[in-house]
Write a structure and sequence with these properties.
The complex is a heterodimer of chains A (219) and B (246). Chain A has 9 helices and no strands. Chain A has 219 residues and is mainly α. Chain B has 246 residues and is mainly alpha-helical. Classes of the chains: A mainly alpha (219), B mainly alpha (246). Chains A and B meet through helix 8 and helix 9 of A and helix 5 and helix 6 of B.
Amino acid sequence: MRAYWAIFSQDIIMAWRLGNTSLAVAFLFIAVTLLPFGVGPELALLKRIAPGLLWVILILTMLLSLDRLFQSDLEDGSFDQLLLLNHAFEVIILTKILAHYFAIIIPVAIFLPIAGLMLNIDASALPGLALSILLAGPALSALGAIGAALSASVQRSGLLTALIVMPLYVPILIFGASVIGEPSSGLNWSSLGVLAAISLATMMLSPFAVAASLRGAER
Amino acid sequence: MSRKKIDWLQYYANPHNFMNLAQRVHLPLWGLAILALAYGLFLSFNAPADYQQGSSVRIMFIHVPAAWLSLFTYSFIAGASLIALIFRHPLGHVAARAAAPIGAIFTLATLITGSLWGQPIWGTWWVWDARLTSVLVLFFLYLGYMAIWRAIESPDQAAKMAAILALVGSVNVPIVKFSVDWWNTLHQPASVSRFARPAIHPDILYPLLTMGGAFFILFFALLVTRVQAEILEQRLRARYRGNLNG
């Protein structure tokens, strides 16, 4: 347990010190700033399309943060050490996935309501938006980890990871964007339930795929 | 029975044994594919035109079989990858790799013919209908699968990564299908159903099934050709390396 905790806290501290956390939040805001230039500053239009756009921006933020999720560990030999540990490699992977969730997605989810206000989303809908991202986050990290692991041995793997991961994100995007899709009807609780279910299932299954592909990349 | 099956799998794990088989079935398979396609096309052009859609309904005879094959090929890739991972069957990786571009082309053909058909009938090249969207996602899965084979230099490693991706994707395809259906019905009820009539008339069904069969045979003919080419290429590479070393 101590080993898992050490890996978890080290990953979070590294994300914080290397600036990955603050970069993800900064990317969120610069992308939100670009939107009105693209679609026009009309508040009614922004209000209608903002939830979906914020979800797309969130996914882009994820993809940019996935790039080096396993690559640096693979290059500097940390994975050899982790494989030699007397612990299940799959659980170590799950720890790293959770660390990514805590280091990237939770900070973004905290700042997302502010971005939502800038795009004229009703204040009453903002807690729902944050909740949906918190619930979907583990699935985003877990599926992203698969893409990161599959392309870990490739230099400049960003675009490859994106091509692999984006089709996997389609269901999450659909249910995530529908949580506050209809402003009149309030929160869509069944969508939140499906998001939670997807998160649990992917957290359970994806460590096996990630571990298998990292073992393959190790050779 | 399962013991016999394993033996059969093992026999063709030897590329030499497979090449023997492939050389025997190669030409007959292509001949059959061409004959079936010709017959299918003949039937398609002689099928009665639809009373509403006119002759453009004939696009269906390409469109629908291509859609069948796009799904079938993905299941084939997933199955071959599974066999390759579990039994460490070398031919599984080769077959999966060879099938991927064929499947991608079938998927692209589905999208393009669908678009060409949609223009005169629905009045638009593209709608974000559940079916169209999930086929488009399937196309991207094919692209990602092929990109991994290209990006990773070591062939053994690329084979393993691609197989894992194929299996992950095969879990993903039904989930995408389900969620896209749900998404579409949430926003608009099914306004475009392609087979509005209760049943397909035999005059149309028979050419459709013939074309479907022809596409299946064509798939296997293309597959055998591509697997043969792949094995020959591996042999060439091995020989080249041998010359370099000694």
